[in-house]
Design goal:
Two copies of one chain form a homodimer.
Chain A: E1 2-6, E2 13-18, H1 25-30, E3 37-43, H2 47-60, E4 64-70, H3 79-91, E5 99-104, H4 106-118, E6 125-129, H5 132-138, E7 143-148, E8 151-158, E9 163-167, H6 176-193, H7 195-209, H8 213-233, H9 248-257, H10 265-279, H11 287-299, H12 310-321, E10 332-338, E11 341-347, H13 350-359
Helix pairs in contact in A: 3-4, 4-5, 5-6, 5-8, 6-7, 6-10, 7-8, 9-10, 9-12, 10-11, 10-13
């Protein structure tokens, strides 16, 4: 088992990475001195696979746990679902010292984290991410929230978990499409921060796609360590944390205009990162860098092109302007200078964004 | 104009108290270095009276303000209304540096504050309380939130305003019932913290009910100073801040079982405080203290009795157990030792609570 620490003063917490960690959920929660009651929020895909083991581990450690199951998919990251979770927490008499366990992928983590951030003005929560994407990205760093019709993650809070348990055994049952979507965030860490990780991905991609536990454990822990480092420097995203949004401005826009249904998040930011790589020619990226980035996404089985009508392009620009990263009306991009190094807060003329979209057009 | 400062490190802010302050809204916001866009959230009663003046002051100071109007009344403190506010903020393209002005009573302040706490993971907001209750209580201290069917304020956040503007001229148009309801919180400050304030209220109540600006200015500023002091010591209500809940456990319960429609908050906590005064006989309160407390609420025209059926009593106990102040399943009360001094975290046998309810039964 590997341990990565997120250093945020009295809100610091560990990320545990290893196979079979779900069985340790109860004992690990017991070490945190939380209240006896808790709620496990999960979804209709993950619940049938893992909720029983979570409940057993919590029960054996003396916790009184209930399960709240939401429909699987991005459409559950919505206010009416938040409201139904609140009602169930109230029905089960959760108190201020009670806690929530988010058992599932990024959708469940973001939703359950937002519920935890706001129920009784905030109760503790534990992340048990079961997808690759959630383990390397969304479960770490305390960004929680839900979508509005107008845009992704427009509502939310910063609420750090007390513990993140990354059980590598969860990947065994992860559908191929979701696993590959998670690789989009893994590749991102290489582009923004770590050329050695990028080279390792180029070298070991086949072993990763075969889900070899030894390679995966090292890669997941490395991604978590990069994220923990960035979050420790800039919790509320006023500076370096924005680099984690590489490829996300266009990616979020694509998700918004397709009503969060067509693409998995990792697929949308795969296209977004390839477009951002093209845009990065203005900040020092070379044509061969763009080609390496594109090639790795292609080998990972991720989409790198999109078909957009003229009216969809207009909607995409409107959605990007609603993105949280907008400041003074201007969309700001994270752009790469080289593989392993990025700059943020870059204003880019609309015409250049259109040009990058042409490059990823089908 | 009086100024009271809330000291919370880099989240400190001033409370300004005086007549005609609404006209200073724009210039005061300009001093805070906020973004150009803002939304004034108000309700259907307050909006027609004050929104125009707020917009003019903001506009003259260079801000681009829009007005969002919600129905007047406690029923607007609900998730669907929060959702409609979010949608309007998105439609008006509010960004992270944009801000919200809460223009109205406690309902508007709590609702708008929660919207500000969670939109884009938190944007700045300004409190412009127009009722006595909001000026002396809910606008100060950063507790924001909405109700669930299961209980009052069960969803929320701690999100401090950047500024509180208490315009005493707003009382001119405040309905008599609402003004008197505000006195319930004013009297509370005397009971929990300040025997001199309590005596002043006994002496000057008629002048206060006549809304004499000189007396009111001093009383509002004194209440804000007490609240600022308590909040500065204990922002997140882990200790002394709970004393502000004197009378609120039973009061919130009464509001919950009447579906937040029958009583104004001040009316419910008037009954709650009289019941808490009876319970306080166990912590040192004398029968004459109880009589003084009851008498002052009666003179202020506030209800001190309630008619409850047996089944309503059962519901009231269930609602109290859902209160946020519950810990390890036990309801905790704030009880008075004398006028001007209280203790908190007091467990009280159900039979004694029933006894106190008998005392306030019609």
């Amino acid at each position: 088992m590997r341990t990565v620490r997120v250093s945020l003063g009295d809100r610091s917490y560990p990320i545990l990475v290893g196979p079979g960690l779900l069985a340790r959920l109860g004992p690990e929660c017991a070490r945190l001195g939380l209240g006896r009651r808790c709620a496990v929020i999960t979804d209709s895909q993950v619940g049938p696979r893992f909720a029983k083991a979570a409940l057993e581990s919590l029960g054996a450690a003396g916790f009184d746990a209930v399960v709240i199951t939401v429909p699987a998919g991005e459409t559950s990251k919505a206010l009416p679902v938040v409201g139904r979770c609140y009602d169930q927490l109230a029905a089960h008499r959760l108190e201020r010292k009670s806690f929530i366990v988010a058992l599932g992928g990024g959708v469940v983590g973001d939703l359950a984290g937002f519920v935890a951030a706001t129920y009784l003005r905030g109760i503790p929560f534990i992340q048990v991410p079961t997808t690759l994407l959630a383990q390397v990205d969304s479960s770490v760093g305390g960004k929680v929230g839900v979508n509005l019709k107008a845009g992704k993650n427009l509502v939310g809070a910063f609420h750090q978990p007390r513990l993140v348990l990354c059980d590598l055994a969860a990947f065994g049952s992860l559908p191929e499409r979701e696993f590959r979507a998670g690789l989009a965030e893994v590749i991102k860490y290489g582009i923004i921060h770590d050329p050695a990780l990028f080279r390792r991905l180029e070298r070991d991609l086949d072993r990763i796609l075969a889900r070899e536990e030894s390679v995966l454990g090292a890669v997941v822990a490395r991604c978590c360590a990069i994220k923990a480092d960035v979050v420790g420097q800039d919790e509320t995203e006023s500076g370096v944390r924005t680099t984690l949004n590489f490829g996300h401005t266009i990616g979020h826009g694509l998700e918004a205009i397709s009503a969060y249904g067509r693409y998995l998040h990792g697929e949308a930011i795969s296209i977004g990162q390839v477009a951002a790589a093209h845009l990065s020619l203005r900040t020092g990226f070379s044509a061969s860098d763009v080609a390496r980035v594109r090639e790795l996404f292609v080998r990972a089985g991720l989409p790198v092109t999109v078909r957009l009508t003229a009216s969809q392009r207009i909607k995409l620009f409107a959605a990007m302007r609603l993105d949280k990263k907008v400041s003074d009306g201007a969309v700001r991009f994270v752009l790469a200078q080289r593989i392993g190094g990025v700059v943020w807060g870059q204003q880019v003329p609309d015409a250049d964004v259109q040009g990058a979209l042409d490059k990823v057009a089908e």
